[in-house]
C-alpha cells in the first residue's frame, strides 16, 4: 500500500513538473520577446541613454535563452526519472532565480536615474542639432515618433542659433520634425506644404515616461518569472526525493522477492540442496608397539 501511494505521488509530481517546464518554455519565449522589444526601444533612443541602461534588457534576454535550455533537463529528467538531471534542473533554476532578482533590482534602480540622465543629455546635445548629423537624426527621430518638440517645449529651440531653413514661429526657428499638422496648397504650379500646428509637449517627459515604463516592465517580468521558478524548484526537489525513495523501495522489494524465491526453492527441493561433504578417514586398526 505504501509502495502504491509512493508511486502515485511520484507520478503526480512528475506530471506537474512537466507542466511547469512547459510553462517555462512559454514564459522563456515571452521574456525573450519582451527583452528584445525593450532593447529595440532603448536602441532607438540610445543616443540619449547611458550604456548601463541596456544591461537589464540584455540580462533578461540571456536569462530567457538559458531557461529554454534548462527546461530540457527538467523534461528529460522527469520522463526518465533521473535524479541527477532533476537535481541539475533545480540547481540551475536556483542560479537563474538569483540572476532574475538581480536584473529586477537593477531595472528598478536604474529607473530612478532615468529622469536626471535624460534631462542632462538632451540639454547638452540640443545646441549641436545643426552642427552634428547624429544629433540631428536623433532629435528628428524622437520628435517625430514621440510627437514632441524641444526638451520642455518648442521654446527651447530659441536658444539654438541657426542659419538654416525650418519652421519659423514667433522669431523662433524649429525643425520640420516638430510639425504636428501640415496644409497643402498650390501656388501657381508649385505645391507648398505649410506647417499649421506644432507639437505642444516637450520630449523630456515623453522619453522619460517611455524608459521609465520599459524598465518597470522588465522588473515586473523578471519577478513574475521568478515566482514561477520557485514553484518549479520545489517540484524538482520533491520529484528528486520521490525518485530516490521509489528506487530504494524497488530495490528493497526486488531483494525481498529474490530471497523468497531462494527460500521457496530450497524448501520445495530438499533433495537438491547442497549437502556438506563428509570426509571418511580409514581405520587401520591398533598397532602394537
Automatic annotation (TrEMBL):
Locations listed in the record: Membrane
Topology in membrane: Multi-pass membrane protein
Gene Ontology cellular-component annotations: plasma membrane
Chain segments annotated as transmembrane: 12-42, 54-79, 86-110, 217-243
Pfam families: Tetraspanin (PF00335)
Keyword terms of this UniProt record: Membrane, Transmembrane, Transmembrane helix
Keyword Transcription: no
Homology family: Belongs to the tetraspanin (TM4SF) family.
Protein name from the UniProt record: Tetraspanin
Lineage: Eukaryota, Metazoa, Ecdysozoa, Arthropoda, Hexapoda
Amino acid at each position: 500500500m505504501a509502495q502504491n501511494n509512493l508511486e502515485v505521488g511520484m507520478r503526480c509530481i512528475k506530471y506537474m513538473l512537466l507542466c511547469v517546464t512547459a510553462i517555462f518554455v512559454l514564459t522563456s519565449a515571452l521574456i525573450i520577446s519582451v527583452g528584445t522589444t525593450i532593447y529595440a526601444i532603448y536602441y532607438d533612443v540610445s543616443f540619449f541613454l547611458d550604456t548601463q541602461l541596456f544591461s537589464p534588457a540584455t540580462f533578461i534576454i540571456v536569462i530567457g535563452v538559458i531557461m529554454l535550455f534548462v527546461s530540457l533537463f527538467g523534461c528529460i529528467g522527469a520522463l526518465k526519472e533521473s535524479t541527477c538531471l532533476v537535481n541539475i534542473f533545480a540547481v540551475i533554476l536556483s542560479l537563474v532565480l538569483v540572476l532574475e532578482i538581480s536584473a529586477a533590482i537593477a531595472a528598478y534602480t536604474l529607473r530612478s536615474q532615468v529622469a536626471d540622465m535624460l534631462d542632462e543629455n538632451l540639454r547638452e546635445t540640443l545646441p549641436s542639432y545643426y552642427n552634428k548629423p547624429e544629433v540631428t537624426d536623433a532629435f528628428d527621430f524622437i520628435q517625430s515618433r514621440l510627437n514632441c518638440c524641444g526638451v520642455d517645449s518648442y521654446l527651447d529651440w530659441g536658444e539654438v542659433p541657426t542659419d538654416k531653413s525650418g519652421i519659423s514661429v514667433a522669431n523662433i526657428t524649429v525643425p520640420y520634425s516638430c510639425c504636428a499638422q501640415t496644409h497643402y496648397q498650390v501656388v501657381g504650379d508649385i505645391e507648398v506644404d505649410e506647417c499649421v500646428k506644432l507639437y505642444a509637449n516637450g520630449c523630456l517627459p515623453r522619453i522619460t515616461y517611455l524608459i521609465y515604463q520599459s524598465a518597470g516592465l522588465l522588473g515586473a517580468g523578471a519577478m513574475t518569472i521568478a515566482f514561477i521558478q520557485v514553484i518549479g524548484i520545489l517540484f524538482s526537489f520533491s520529484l528528486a526525493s520521490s525518485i530516490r525513495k521509489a528506487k530504494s523501495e524497488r530495490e528493497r522489494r526486488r531483494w525481498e522477492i529474490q530471497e523468497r524465491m531462494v527460500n521457496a526453492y530450497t524448501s520445495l527441493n530438499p533433495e537438491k540442496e547442497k549437502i556438506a561433504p563428509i570426509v571418511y578417514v580409514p581405520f587401520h586398526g591398533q598397532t602394537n608397539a
